[in-house]
């Protein structure tokens, strides 16, 4: 029998949270402006960040949309604007606890939802402690941003946190965030259209050329959102540079980037059959999982559409992308 269809990349925004300046210290925290029963705006200070509605906070609406899309399980992760990596660690610990607890309260133990927590990644010890607390409380894995300021995923502290994730069996979702702005990137949502793929590509460079995969156990289950950015497309260029300009490119890596393709998985938020084929051809049919970026408007609806309609996939491959690969990533029996 076919297994459950799984969407590994969705987000949640609780409907309301404590006033964060009072609860955590600091200023200019995100807050939720409620415009009506069905409309709200995430604010950062006095700046509008993103409109949200019931799909972001109402499990009943999520279940209805999942049924319409043919999705049985949803991995539900934080919205990255709440990560607070740029704040003092004690503030980031407090905000992580607030949103992690609200996530469990919102999802109310519904087995169709697989909650992922957030952690104060700027403090690896505190991040490990918060992950352990969340796993004990009911979270299954963790979503992290792809960098902490100028520290990328090959930073010693972040590698130590990822090693802890492997040790405790927590799957990791890496999500791009905090993309640079400026006149060329503040038009047309270019930070999302160009910045997000570039950030993810850069983080996979850090994992490979920075030697992070060489230092981490192969048991780490780590997924890169948005199809891994542009990494698969430029893999040939990366290997060519590693071999021909090793003096400048190799960094701490033992092998060329293509050697590490079996160390991570990516989601299918690429929207079209051609890039999906590239992912399957490059990474392999066991390394690609359905993701949608639900409930945001730049996500895929129906979730999994590109996988279900791709002519090049066999029935067996389609089953892997819709179900088996995600269950293995989550550490569940297939």
UniProtKB/TrEMBL annotation:
One GO term of the biological process aspect: secondary metabolic process
GO function terms (MF aspect): aminocarboxymuconate-semialdehyde decarboxylase activity; hydrolase activity; metal ion binding
EC number(s) recorded for this UniProt protein: 4.1.1.45
GO cellular component assignments: cytosol
Pathway: Secondary metabolite metabolism; quinolate metabolism
Top-rank EC class of the record's enzyme: lyase
Any Pfam family the entry gives: Amidohydro_2
Domain of life: Bacteria
InterPro entries: ACMSD, Amidohydro-rel, Metal_Hydrolase
Keywords: Decarboxylase, Hydrolase, Lyase, Metal-binding, Zinc
Amidohydrolase-related domain ranges (all copies): 6-331
Family membership noted in the UniProt record: Belongs to the metallo-dependent hydrolases superfamily. ACMSD family.
Subunit annotation: Monomer.
Name of the protein this chain belongs to: 2-amino-3-carboxymuconate-6-semialdehyde decarboxylase
């Amino acid at each position: 029998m076919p297994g459950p269809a799984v969407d590994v990349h969705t987000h949640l925004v609780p409907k309301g949270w404590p006033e964060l300046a009072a609860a955590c210290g600091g200023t200019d925290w995100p807050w939720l402006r409620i415009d009506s029963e069905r409309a709200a705006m995430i604010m950062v200070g006095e700046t509008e960040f993103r409109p949200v509605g019931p799909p972001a906070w109402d499990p009943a609406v999520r279940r209805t949309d999942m049924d319409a899309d043919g999705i049985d399980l949803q991995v539900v992760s934080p919205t990255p604007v709440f990560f607070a990596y740029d704040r003092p660690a004690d503030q980031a610990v407090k905000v992580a606890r607030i949103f992690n607890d609200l996530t469990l309260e919102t999802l109310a133990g519904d087995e169709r939802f697989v909650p992922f927590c957030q952690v104060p990644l700027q403090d690896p010890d505190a991040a490990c402690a918060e992950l352990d607390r969340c796993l004990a409380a009911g979270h299954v894995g963790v979503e992290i941003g792809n960098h902490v300021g100028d520290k990328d995923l090959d930073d010693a502290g972040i590698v130590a946190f990822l090693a802890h994730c492997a040790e405790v069996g927590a799957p990791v979702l890496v999500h791009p965030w905090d993309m640079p702005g400026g006149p060329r990137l503040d038009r047309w949502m270019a930070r999302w259209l160009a910045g997000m793929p570039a950030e993810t590509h850069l983080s996979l460079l850090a994992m490979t050329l920075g030697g992070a995969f060489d230092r981490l156990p192969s048991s780490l289950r780590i997924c890169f959102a948005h199809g891994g950015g542009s990494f698969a497309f430029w893999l040939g260029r990366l290997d060519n540079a590693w071999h021909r300009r090793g003096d400048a490119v190799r960094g701490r890596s033992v092998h060329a980037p293509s050697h590490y393709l079996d160390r991570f998985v990516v989601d299918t938020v690429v929207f079209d059959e051609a890039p999906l084929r590239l992912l399957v051809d490059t990474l392999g049919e066991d390394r690609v999982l359905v993701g949608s970026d639900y409930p945001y408007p730049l996500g895929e609806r129906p979730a999994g559409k590109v996988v279900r309609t791709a002519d090049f996939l066999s029935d067996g491959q389609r089953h892997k992308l819709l179900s088996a690969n995600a269950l293995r990533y989550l550490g569940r029996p297939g």
